[in-house]
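Protein 1 of 2
SEQ + STRUCT:
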Amino acid sequence: MNLSEQIDNHRGTPYLRVLISYNHSKNILSSNAFELSVMLEKLENHEIQQKMGWDEFRKRFMDFDGHIVRYLHNFVTAVMTLREHTRVIMRSDLMSEAHKARYAAKVKETFDQSNLARFMQDFRRYYFHYGIPNIEHISTILPKEDTQIFLDLTHLNQWKDWSAN
């Protein structure tokens, strides 16, 4: 057998592949979270506006909302992708029953009473099955120039399928 065949046939190879795949899923989530936060920070600290000038920035304002929506979509998707990839790994024959039991207990301890976890699941359902949330921008000039970007909670609250918290 050549080296490639030896590696493919090694009993540790399936574990290595699972770890690599899981690492990719975590990196996707981290990258999407980073891209979303960078975009919001650049809008809120006026970096984009300063580079473009106010007139050009106002003309392209809706483009930036489109980018926020895209980054938010990618982040929400990545959260659920990591969750599902982890579930697949934990259901696989590679994991011992003892490890599966410890994992299930940790999931229960961490997420069963987590409002954030419940919100993310509901928000994903809203985002993918109901509609894209509205983005709000609030700008002030005094006492200092400030811009904040929010999701329109009034619109989100109209959706009747939120879990009870």
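Protein 2 of 2
SEQ + STRUCT:
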Amino acid sequence: MIEKKKVLVIVPFPMSEEHLANRRAQLKGVKLSPYIEFHFRGVKAGPSSIASPADYLYMDMAVFEAGLDAQREGFDAVCIDTTSDSGLEALRSVLDIPVISPGKAAMLSCLMLGNRFGIISQWKFSVERIWKMIRRNGFEPFCAAVVNYDSPSDVLNLLGGKEEIVFPKMEIACEKAIEAGADVICLGSTTMHQAASYLAKRLPVPIINPGPLTYKIVETVLDLGVTHSRKAYPKSIAPQDADIHIMFDALAGADHRE
């Protein structure tokens, strides 16, 4: 009998089981082996949005804390449910199991399918964050455009209830990216996953849906029996795991109301 593999999917915001269901719905976007199961977990505490470098730092730490014990808990891999790749490098430095995140992976996948990609983003605050990631990974020559469709992110409800308004705006943003030279479109956030099918039916170029992509990548990595390079992600010589847990346990139990 084949033993099932367990994958922890870290959602970078605190949320209820009801709202986690919106994230879990990404599993419907890809066909996966019956021998792999995905467990979704929100962070204990974190920013309510990611609009500034201060938010990025907080999210990095929140995701890092949420995944610190994944290997000891019996998980075979970790997925991070944000294209910001928050906490990716830090978690790879402490875990031997594969840690997969959709930002860089989605851009690399775009370049397997075309020559230049375009990314659509929800609102103005995400544009510079996306460009920073593009530049950091050396993808600037291959990115035709990052187009903002001006709809603030809703990290709990995602696009639910707003389809008739938001989906056409996303389609227009994709068309602008194509006009700028993109031959592949990448959704700029896993919170956009509900629009992937709509856009794929209407656009003349491939659409990369980052969340489901990571689930297929982690399945492949587990099948191949490989993980990230320890040379690229060396372990800490003085781990502070307990301190990180203490901080976030305190934050999770704190009452910040005035």
